[in-house]
Amino acid sequence: MTAVKNVALTGVLAASMALAVSSPAWSHHSHAMFDHDKELTITGTVAEWIFRNPHVFLYMDVKSDKGDTVRYTVEMSNLTNMLKAGFGAKTFKAGDSITVTMHPLADGRPGGNYIVATSGDGKQFGRI
Amino acid sequence: MSRQFTARASIAALLVGVSLSVLAAQSAKPTIFTTTDFRQDRDLWTDPAYYRNNTPGQLRGMAINVEGRRTGQELSARPYGSQGTGRADAATVKSPYPYTNAWDHYQALLKQANGGTKQTKATLPDWSGHWGGGANFGGGAPASSIAAMLTPKYRETFVQEMKAVTEGRIWSANSICLPGGYFDAVSAEEFVVTPGRVYAMGSGNGSFTARWIFTDGSAHSPTEKEFPKWHGESIGFWNGDELIVHTNQIHGWKGGLSEFSDQLETVERYRLVGDRLEGEITLYDPEVYVSPVNGRLRFQRDKETAYEDRMQFNTCTDTNGPAPNVYMDDKGLLNERVAGDPLYWEPADTRPWATYFNESDKRYKASGLKPTPRTGAPTKK
Q1: What is the 3-state secondary structure (H, E, C) of B18-29?
Q2: Strands A38-50 vs B379-380: parallel, antiparallel or unpaired
Q3: Which of A75, A82, B189, B281 lies 20 to 30 A from B370 at CA?
Q4: Secondary structure (3-state) at B181
Q5: How many other CB atoms sit within 10 Å of the CB of residue B263?
Q6: Beta carbons of B207 and A24 less than 8 Å apart
């Protein structure tokens, strides 16, 4: 399983945010550490599926072009959004095949913020 | 004809010249994006042009530094330094009321209600169900409008934060897994209305909020039993179907317009209008605001509560780890870090985000990083 390099186009949507609105749905941290100008698609196996708030995490083992295995940390959304997107606590288990497209960490470490995940049987889970 | 034409041409040339001069003068002024030391720009902090007319929300969106895409945080994403859409007349943040403190405001409303309406289970309004919404202060107004409402000390910390967030340096209490504070609790999702208490609850990704509003006629705790509480201490009364709430003893923190102090006291008013709870919240904190602040409260009741929207208890540490002060030492024993130890967390720090902003300012400057606007489609690989 190697990192897949492919190309997709992302739609553009601009919106303004209301000023100083308190909301319990506010994310607990900014996504500024991810490079939103890049999309990286990786294929590998699920190492751990942590279905918990404040953010769900997917740990993936991916074979690099050099042949060694790299552990990727993929940060996902909160439980409410994940359930709305079709994910569940048992969607993945260790050893499952999976492909994830994400905005990678800007500093190049193996991780990112997911955009879409595709399970081994071809089912696609998009970010809502 | 020719004389008229010449006169018109001269006037037009003059106007163009004046406009160009004004533009040149404006472009010479630093903005929050071009300044090398925002503290030198105090005179500009209340000028919309200093923020290129961006709202605080739009400035925060620049942390992502791309055109907004999809949903979530990317929805509010904006390229660094882009022109905003703030409108100074979008909403008035200044309170329209003559009161100088929350207690006088509350007492005046109590007097208007002739001491309040005695409610029973049968007469209380139905606030059941799941609600979305909360407080809004000056939505759509540029950051300058907020800066103008703050006293010098808090104006400076506000501008420091606005500068940092445009550069992707967003530090809030939530981002380091500390409680959201009073304003998170104002954005409740469920209300339990009983004759002597109103309970307001909410849940975020990493938190759970609860408020207890005493409507049984009891007073605030006596002075010797007062202490700052995350969500304050609330008492209230009914005026017909309207709930009026006074909250004091609020733990100074961050939220609403800006940071706030332990002196913050608020008056809230709620009334059911169809499937909306509508009202207002007035903030009194002379340490922070140059005059009392007024915001809108609006909640919309869900027609039905989706399974995934059911509230739950959450902790921020669940996937981010526990606080570092209690740890296992090299002998395998439970131990505690003290001031000066590596990784020690200072619990007496009343403004932890400010500590982060100050350190972040130093590190960012030393790094030599410079934000540049990114507007292209994502690079794929």
Answers
A1: HHHHHHHHHHHC
A2: parallel
A3: A75
A4: coil
A5: 16
A6: yes
pLDDT in tens, B96-124: 999 999 999 999 999 999 999 999 999 99
List alpha helices for B294-351, DSSP H: 317-320
Strand B190-193 and strand B197-204: the pairing is antiparallel
Q: Strand, helix or coil at B184?
A: helix
Handedness of CA B53, B55, B60, B65 (dihedral sign): negative
Greater confidence (B92 vs B105) lies with: B105
Among chain B residues, the shortest Cα distance to A57 is held by B319
Question: Rounded distance, CA B38 to CA B31, Å?
Answer: 9
The interface predicted TM-score of the complex, written ipTM, equals 0.76
- Sequence-distant (≥ 6) Cβ neighbours of residue A58 within 8 angstroms: A46, A48, A49, A50, A74, A76, A92, A98, A100, A114, A117
Q: What is the mean pLDDT of residues A78-97?
A: 93
Instruction: For residue B71, list chain A residues with Cβ-Cβ distance below 8 A.
Output: 127-128
| B139:A20 CB<8 A | yes
Contact of B263 with B247, CB cutoff 8 Å: no
Q: Please answer whether residues B186 and A24 qualify as being in contact, where contact means their C-beta atoms are separated by less than 8 angstroms.
A: no
Instruction: Establish if B200 touches chain A: CB-CB under 8 angstroms.
Output: no
Which residues on chain B are in Cβ contact (under 8 Å) with A51? none
Residue B268, classed as helix, strand or coil, is strand
Q: Rounded CA gap, B106 and B97, in Å?
A: 11
**Cα–Cα distance measured from residue A37 to residue B378, given in angstroms and rounded to the nearest whole number:** 4
Q: Which of B175, B202, B203 sits opposite A30 (nearest CB)?
A: B175
Q: Return the closest-CA partner of residue B135 out of B245, B46, B44, B15.
A: B245
pTM of the shown model: 0.83
Residues 134-153 of B with CB under 8 A from A: 134-141, 146
Using H for helix, E for strand and C for coil, what is the string for chain A? CECCCCCCCCCCCCCCCCCCCCCCCCCCCCCCCECCCEEEEEEEEEEEEECCCCCCEEEEEEECCCCCEEEEEEECCCHHHHHHCCCCCCCCCCCCEEEEEEEEECCCCCEEEEEEEEECCCCEEECC
Nearest C-alpha of chain A: how many angstroms from B58? 6
Residues whose CB falls within 8 Å of the CB of residue B214, separated by 6 or more in sequence, listed in order: B196, B197, B234, B235, B236
pLDDT confidence of A128, banded at 50, 70, 90? very low
